[in-house]
């Protein structure tokens, strides 16, 4: 892959930091030469030196011979994103495709090791390539599919289509649950919540040797969506596995701390609690999706929109009252010439004026409206 000294654009169209590099060498030429000599010594760790950090680099050439110029921020942003991904990669394939990947990664590492002008993002580029290049497209994909997919991704990488490649890979989430009905093997990806307990009625329990046994039982039980696992082993060396018919997202008020249990929930976008304003996240496990069930007064994909009952005519205020919208609700208040509770307003000059008398006895207090 061909790179350039990025930074400023020169008249001949070549982008670089040559002047900056020349200034650094002129200022500290002795130290720079000393570093080069020392790096030849076995076991020597060089000190920190200033590195040219251009905003753009030459990434390579297209088939028509034109230059591919890439902003270094593309690699930096991609590196920040893959840092949030879970490990989900396939092995490097055999053959030409696997060698091509290794050569490409080696090229980036050499750029860093040889003080190339793209040195400041070379290692990040290597890590990003490995992450996006080897991401599994699905739990049932075979080795041949891996090879074909990697070959396609390497072409996109060399063409500088990093953002497009990142989006395509990110749009291929692994489904966290398969019940094993019909074709396929039952599996589920569970996330542990250490020393926690979901206090709901279970659908069954048993003693198991490890958490994977409990997880597999849950995956093959259609009505199971999470489980509690005991921390302390019984005399048999086993722990208690309790299968549950729901999850923490629908029962957050019953999710408690426990020194004797760990809770396991199926991997879901609901883990990030995306539903706002006390909305409930309804996980669609087999599709790795979710739907927010909003509380009354809110709507939107994440329950982020407050419904204005006053302007939409969804209130119960009297025609002679003001309607004031509030977060998730509204308030009614009678106009100046009227009195009442806002839902029932009568003129202040009306002959009919209700009053309330309070009847007391030893056991209770009762309010009775009278004329």
UniProtKB/TrEMBL annotation:
Keywords: Disulfide bond, EGF-like domain, Glycoprotein, Repeat, Signal. GO terms for molecular function: calcium ion binding. The keyword Repeat applies. InterPro entries: EGF (IPR000742), EGF-like_Ca-bd_dom (IPR001881), EGF-type_Asp/Asn_hydroxyl_site (IPR000152), EGF_Ca-bd_CS (IPR018097), NOTCH1_EGF-like (IPR049883), Notch_Cell-Fate_Det (IPR051022). It comes from the Eukaryota. It holds the Pfam family EGF. One of its GO terms (cellular component) is plasma membrane. GO terms for biological process: establishment or maintenance of epithelial cell apical/basal polarity; heterophilic cell-cell adhesion via plasma membrane cell adhesion molecules. Residues 266-304, 306-346 form the EGF-like domain. Disulfide bonds join 275-292, 294-303. This is Neurocan core protein. It comes from Stylophora pistillata (Smooth cauliflower coral). The gene is NCAN.
């Amino acid at each position: 892959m061909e790179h350039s000294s990025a930074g400023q654009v020169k008249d001949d169209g070549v982008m670089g930091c040559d002047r900056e590099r020349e200034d650094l060498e002129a200022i500290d030429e002795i130290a720079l030469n000393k570093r080069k000599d020392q790096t030849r010594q076995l076991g020597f760790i060089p000190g920190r030196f200033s590195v040219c950090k251009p905003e753009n680099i030459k990434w390579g050439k297209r088939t028509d011979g034109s230059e591919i110029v890439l902003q270094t921020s593309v690699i930096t942003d991609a590196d920040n994103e893959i840092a949030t991904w879970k490990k989900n990669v396939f092995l490097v394939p055999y053959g030409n495709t696997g060698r091509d990947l290794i050569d490409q990664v080696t090229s980036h590492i050499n750029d860093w090791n040889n003080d190339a002008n793209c040195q400041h993002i070379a290692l990040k580029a290597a890590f990003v390539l490995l992450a996006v290049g080897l991401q599994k497209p699905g739990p049932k994909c075979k080795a041949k599919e891996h090879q074909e997919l990697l070959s396609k991704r390497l072409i996109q990488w060399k063409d500088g289509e990093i953002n497009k490649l990142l989006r395509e890979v990110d749009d291929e989430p692994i489904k966290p649950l398969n019940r094993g009905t019909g074709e396929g093997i039952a599996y589920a990806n569970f996330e542990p919540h250490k020393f926690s307990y979901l206090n709901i009625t279970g659908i069954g329990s048993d003693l198991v040797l490890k958490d994977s046994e409990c997880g597999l039982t849950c995956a093959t039980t259609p009505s199971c969506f999470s489980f509690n696992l005991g921390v302390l082993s019984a005399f048999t060396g086993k722990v208690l596995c309790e299968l549950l018919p729901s999850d923490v997202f629908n029962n957050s008020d019953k999710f408690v701390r426990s020194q004797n249990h760990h809770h396991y929930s199926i991997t879901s976008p609901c883990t990030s609690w995306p539903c706002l304003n006390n909305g409930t996240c309804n996980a669609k496990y087999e599709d790795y999706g979710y739907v927010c069930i909003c509380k009354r007064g809110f709507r939107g994909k994440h329950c982020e929109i407050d419904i204005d009952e006053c302007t939409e005519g969804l209130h119960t205020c009297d025609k002679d009252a003001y309607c004031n919208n509030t977060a998730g609700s509204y308030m009614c208040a009678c106009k100046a010439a009227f009195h009442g509770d806002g839902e029932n307003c009568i003129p202040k000059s009306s002959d009919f004026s209700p009053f309330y008398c309070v009847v007391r006895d030893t056991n209770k207090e009762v309010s009775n409206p009278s004329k």
